[in-house]
Amino acid sequence: MRHADFIADAGIARQQHTLADGRDLFYFDDPDTTLSPDRAADVRELDQRPATANMRQDPLSAEWVSIAAARQNRVFLPPAHLDPLAPSTPDNPSEVPSNYDVAVFENKTPSFGPLLTDADAPAGLADLATIGLGRTRTSVGRCEVVCFSPENEGSFASLSATRARTVIEAWAERTYALSSLPGIEQVFPFENRGEAIGVTLRHPHGQIYAYPYVTPRTRQLIESLDVYGPTLFADILTLEQAGDRVVLQGAYWTAFVPFAARWPIEVHMLPNRHVPDFAATTLAERDELAVLYRRLLRGIDAIYSTPTPYIGAWHQAPVHVRRSEIRLMLQVTSPRRAEDKLKYLAGSEAAMGAWIGDVTPEQAATTIREAIERADAADAAASAAATPPARTATPEKPHHD
């Protein structure tokens, strides 16, 4: 089994349950949780799960496209009282039967899965690498939803530091578990935030995709490693730490605007040592990440007067290949190029993949650093206001005999 060195945080309790249609549900409880360990059963009457989607190969790029038509019917921006990710109530029989701190469950309309094996592709990756016309395969794999909070609105940035740490523990444990499933080649945790990104639920949540192949972006990275050499990530980190694009740095992580940033807001974060994925992180690394990642996102939100739409993408090494060379990396991107303007992918970017940047990475780094400072100051002020003033002793009156 992979990740034999995975260490779970014993202070974060977890439970496994099954939803009414057979999907897995996992609860992760904060160390200081006030919730009862007893959780309700899912008593809904649900339709059978949709059949696993099919992939079609584009012979011009050799890429596989999953055609998951069942997703067309998923819920779109429901009112708060019908939030499918909120804890279940008699009026809203949701996906999560009980109140929770963090909950993870299999997606009802997945892009990949629930099947984990494809009878038509016994050779696995070797079969997928072949190029032909009209080729189809089953979209095996798994897709999970990660609910960050029972609240109806918010994002990772709105979580407490304790809750952020619980979410990171869920990412680590689910990466470990999904990487151990048959047919899984790469695991991808991510968060889509904001309607400008295409979010269909306002509830604070993310997703984890477990793919049956190494994704196109990672295959391009492998080509770069073949040309440059195995020290690519270490050398990038050394370059950025010596420059003026670093926005946050800790004992275990460094966040920076990359030298060739494509988006008007783009930040990468790397662990300071080689770590292939979340499952390989230490408890100390997860502890620091909960603080730094939250500060980064709160800073990005503080750039403008309204919250910033973004994609928080955690690139992890494939399950079976190049794990000693490919390092876990966060990539936060936002199309927001001004208070009321978005960058749309026009002809050069969308059709040719040839990007044109609107903001210099150095200026973007300065803007983000200043916004993080404002967010930190606002957090400190809010914390001070919430802390009761220290009680001062009343001076004793002089006593006269």
TL;DR of this structure?
The chain folds into 2 domains: 7-213, HIT family, subunit A, CATH 3.30.428.10; 214-343 and 356-384, HIT family, subunit A, CATH 3.30.428.10.
What does this protein look like?
This protein is α+β, with helices and mostly antiparallel strands. It has two domains: 207 residues, 2-Layer Sandwich (HIT family, subunit A), CATH 3.30.428.10; 159 residues, HIT-like (HIT family, subunit A, 2-Layer Sandwich). Helix content is 24%, strand content 20%. The chain is built from seven helices and 16 strands. The chain has an eleven-stranded antiparallel beta sheet with strand order 1-2-5-7-9-8-13-14-12-11-10, sandwiched between helices. The protein has a three-stranded antiparallel beta sheet with strand order 4-3-6, with no helix packed on it. A hairpin with an 8-residue loop joins strand 11 and strand 12. Helix 2 packs across helix 5. The longest helix has 26 residues. The protein is globular.
Keywords for this structure?
11-stranded antiparallel beta sheet; GalP_UDPtransf1_His-AS; HIT-like_sf; zinc ion binding; HIT family, subunit A; globular; 2 domains; 401 residues; single chain; 16 strands; alpha+beta
Q: Kindly state the percentage of residues in helix.
A: 10-25%
Strand content: 15-25%
Overall mean pLDDT? 93
The third-level CATH topology of the largest domain is HIT family, subunit A
CATH superfamily of the largest domain: HIT-like
State the name of the first-level CATH class of the largest domain. Alpha Beta
Number of domains: 2
Extended strand count: 16
Oligomeric grouping of the chains:
single chain
Summarize the main sheet: 11 strands, antiparallel
Helix-strand pattern: EEEEEHEEHEEHHEEEHEEEEHH
Per CATH, which architecture of the largest domain? Answer: 2-Layer Sandwich
Structural class: alpha+beta
- How big is the Rg? 23 Å
CA distance, first residue to last residue: 82 Å
Shape: globular
Tally of helical segments: 7
Going across the biggest sheet, name each strand in turn. 1-2-5-7-9-8-13-14-12-11-10
Low-confidence stretches: 396-401
GO molecular function, one term: UDP-glucose:hexose-1-phosphate uridylyltransferase activity
Pathway: Carbohydrate metabolism; galactose metabolism
GO biological process, one term: galactose catabolic process via UDP-galactose, Leloir pathway
Family: Belongs to the galactose-1-phosphate uridylyltransferase type 1 family.
